[in-house]
């Protein structure tokens, strides 16, 4: 790693961690401290009010939104680098390394919070807390009875997912930066609407069976393959290999798109 890449990565990482800290502080103030204050004023405050408010703040979900939004803010960072003599390649490398580090830190924070705070307040064991998660419900027992190894698998799986989210944000943010203001606004409005109707169409196609009830439709077969479905295994024992490979391929595709878009960016007057 060159000196410029290291310095730029450090700058981006510290900057993003600062904003992440402010986001979590706002989250705590909005969903924990303010309700506790209102409870205190109304006379319904108890010793368990504040801990209960802090027990489940959706830290992981908030970080998912944060990583997508921050990585999609491409143009201003690009403009600042170009105006200060930093090459496109250096800028892109620093952004990707920052994404890798930031996503890992965010996943670790969310994991520690969930298993250290939320699980305790809900009186869940580590295994039960893992199994009630979407990942755990599918793959929480894949590595056997060792809960720690399964939690490590959960962290790795979630990290790859967050990296893919960030790269998708970079690709979309960069692509939107290439468009004119009018077209950009049109795309932002139209694409989500088309995506919504596409999901409805897929759901309708899947629900209108032309197959016997005991035979899966092609869409159902594809879905089961992608999630690592195991007909002989109980919930929590599905195989995460295919989902992980799929996510890695998705990361490579989105990374390639983000890099291509990065090469096309220009500083606008």
From TrEMBL:
Superkingdom to which the source organism belongs: Bacteria
Keyword terms, alphabetized: Membrane, Transmembrane, Transmembrane helix
Protein name: Abc superfamily atp binding cassette transporter, permease protein
Record keyword Plastid present: no
Transmembrane segments: 21-45, 57-75, 96-115, 151-179, 186-205, 242-261
């Amino acid at each position: 790693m060159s000196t410029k890449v290291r310095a730029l990565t450090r700058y981006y990482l510290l900057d993003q961690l600062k904003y992440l800290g402010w986001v979590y502080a706002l989250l705590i103030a909005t969903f924990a401290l303010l309700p506790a204050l209102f409870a205190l004023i109304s006379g319904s405050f108890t010793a368990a009010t504040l801990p209960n408010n802090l027990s489940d703040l959706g830290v992981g979900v908030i970080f998912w939104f944060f990583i997508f939004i921050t990585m999609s803010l491409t143009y201003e960072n690009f403009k600042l680098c170009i105006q200060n003599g930093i090459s496109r390649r250096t800028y892109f490398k620093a952004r990707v390394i920052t994404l890798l580090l930031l996503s890992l830190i965010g996943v670790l924070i969310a994991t520690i919070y969930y298993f250290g705070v939320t699980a305790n307040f809900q009186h869940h064991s580590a295994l039960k807390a893992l199994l009630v998660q979407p990942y755990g419900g599918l793959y929480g027992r894949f590595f056997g009875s060792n809960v720690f190894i399964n939690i490590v698998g959960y962290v790795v799986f979630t990290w790859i997912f967050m990296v893919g989210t960030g790269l998708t944000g970079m690709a979309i943010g960069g692509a939107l930066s290439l468009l004119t203001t009018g077209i950009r606004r049109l795309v932002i409005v139209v694409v989500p609407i088309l995506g919504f109707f596409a999901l409805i169409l897929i759901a309708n196609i899947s629900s209108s069976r032309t197959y016997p009830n005991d035979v899966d439709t092609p869409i159902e077969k594809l879905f089961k393959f992608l999630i690592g479905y195991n007909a002989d295994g109980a919930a929590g024992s599905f195989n995460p290999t295919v989902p992980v490979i799929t996510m890695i391929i998705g990361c490579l595709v989105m990374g390639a798109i983000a890099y291509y878009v990065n090469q096309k960016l220009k500083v606008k007057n």
